[in-house]
Fold this protein.
Amino acid sequence: MKVLVTGGAGFIGSNLVDACLQDGHQVFVVDNFSTGRRENIVADVPVYPFNIQDAKMDELFRKEQFDAVFHQAAQMDVRRSVQDPIFDAQNNILGTINLLQCCVKYQVKKVIFASSGGAIYGEQESFPATENHSQTPYSPYGITKLAGEKYLFYYALTYGLHYVALRYANVYGPRQNPRGEAGVVAIFTRMLLDGLEPIINGNGKQTRDFVFVKDVVAANIKALHYEKNGVFNIGTGIETSINQVFQKLVQLTGVDAVEKHGPSASGEQFRSVIDPSLAAQKLGWRPRHDLTEGLQETVDFFRNQNNAS
Ligand SMILES: NC(=O)c1ccc[n+]([C@@H]2O[C@H](COP(=O)([O-])OP(=O)(O)OC[C@H]3O[C@@H](n4cnc5c(N)ncnc54)[C@H](O)[C@@H]3O)[C@@H](O)[C@H]2O)c1
């Protein structure tokens, strides 16, 4: 198939590009390099350095006639969404609408959308959250992800667009940006390997559902072959505290570091964990990497980067 990966120079998008190439698809990337990096795209893939809001998207879709689109491009920094909700909505809502307009106009067969199981449910009332959990996002970013899902539903209803929205939990793994605001695994790993001491926000008992990037990529590939529309949680159903992640990383890096705590981050969710049963039932997807395996691969990746530089 001819597939477009928006945000293909980013963390998840670039891992997805690799998997699509391995599956024999013809892959194209649109990325404005706001956070993505050229070196993340290892193979010889056509890369269009456009903003997804750009009118040039129409010309690209007309020329290439994509079969499917994996929509990963987004402003994904929750804090930035709070500081600048207009910028956030421009990228995540207007950008998504521009993309969906192109998909409908040029009869793209399938759109797979990167939604968020961490941000859409807000402070959870039940654990793990199923897809039916109340959706009360606590941030502009979460609102834009929910809006993206609603637009998909609207375009499906009105124009017959086929879509799958995947609500990712906390994704971690190779190529995650260790210098960003999000991505505790990448940040801690980088710091530990550089001999720096990470500071855990608050008491570190806050929990997240950590899912390995290769499992998230596998879910996208399953979604490509799913014949219906749907919205699925892509997580592990396992809650892990930030303290536990820190301890595992200390072990895996072999660094002599002790837990240090700072003030809590304001507005930070306390517990987040999502139920992946529906994805197992409908997509035949299950996470294959447990946390230790995934963290080991992540540590190896960052260590090799050290050796290469
Ligand atoms: N990392 C996570 O834990 C997580 C969790 C839930 C959902 N998501 C979603 O998954 C997707 C990928 O996230 P990621 O972690 O790989 O982030 P990332 O920042 O590494 O990737 C996003 C990519 O999109 C590009 N981009 C951003 N705005 C763009 C625009 N307007 N036009 C063109 N390109 C643009 C960036 O340059 C970057 O390459 C995002 O949609 C994000 O919201 C991520």
